[in-house]
């Protein structure tokens, strides 16, 4: 049993209802009622009773009173510094996942995972032995696949990606490296294929999100 005060916020009411009942039945968690995922709402709830953890998605919308995207993590940290943050996501965007980890999410579980992963995540992050974010099987597979892809690139391919993402043209890169433009173009193409990016803008975004430039 995990005797904690848990708040749950999800854009899908059915998922929120199911999660509330699941963690209550499986772990005995106390579910905080009337919870609103705005900074003011978090503060109001934490004034009534301590919030030990918050499960939330990364939904996006137009309601200015609500918090969206990975900025939710920072907002929760400001409003309830001691609360653990568990992201329950339906996205598999690598850059968003990496940013969520860097922002300090305590756990990330995918909605494509078995629901038992949420139970495991809660138990893991409240274990005194754990000092890093818990990543579910589905999320781990996405990140491991990225490591596998990047390990295939040669040093020259990495350098071309770096220079191209900094704004150099292929001809400028070729001149800088004293190589043929066709050779540089081929290596750029091979690098993009290995990274599974299809456009130049996706390549530059990948470089920015992974601190290549």
From TrEMBL:
The keyword DNA-binding applies. It comes from the Bacteria. The keyword NAD does not apply. Pfam families: GerE. Gene3D superfamilies: 3.40.50.2300, Winged helix-like DNA-binding domain superfamily/Winged helix DNA-binding domain. Residues 146-211 form the HTH luxR-type domain. GO terms for molecular function: DNA binding. Keywords: DNA-binding. InterPro entries: CheY-like_superfamily (IPR011006), Sig_transdc_resp-reg_C-effctor (IPR016032), Tscrpt_reg_LuxR_C (IPR000792), WalR-like (IPR039420), WH-like_DNA-bd_sf (IPR036388). One of its GO terms (biological process) is regulation of DNA-templated transcription. SMART domains: HTH_LUXR. This is Response regulator transcription factor. It comes from Mixta tenebrionis.
